[in-house]
Amino acid sequence: MDTLRALAARLDEASSTLTALSRTVTASDPAQAAFGTDAPGRPGEIGRALHRQWTAATDDRAREARAAAGRLAAAASAVREAADRYGEVDRAARRRITGEP
């Protein structure tokens, strides 16, 4: 059971890491000016389009990281529950073998 609990802890840690990443991936987005959005004419249009695409892509990655974090947390919970149930079965078997009520 200790191995299962250790696995659950590692899954929780990975979930926490992805949750933190989902917050920071968009926090470090470059300013619009870095894409030349304030340039006149076609270069400015291209800069604005690039910035929109960058923002959409990082938002998508953040959303994917949050979803993966949720799945990892659910997996950790399931592994912990399995460990608990294995423990219950082991205790019940031990009681049966030793004749305890």
Q: Give the end-to-end Cα distance, rounded to a whole number of Å.
A: 23 Å
Give helix % range: over 70%
How many structurally independent domains? 1
Largest sheet: none
What does the model show?
The structure is a single chain. With 101 residues, this protein is mainly alpha-helical. It has one domain (2-98). It is 83% helix and 0% strand. The protein is built from 2 helices and no strands. Helix 1 (2-27) packs antiparallel against helix 2 (41-98). It is rod-shaped. The two termini are 23 Å apart.
Summarize the structure.
With 101 residues, the chain is mostly helical.
Descriptive keywords:
101 residues, mainly alpha, 2 helices
What is this structure's SSE topology?
Layout: H1 2-27, H2 41-98
Helix pairs in contact: 1-2
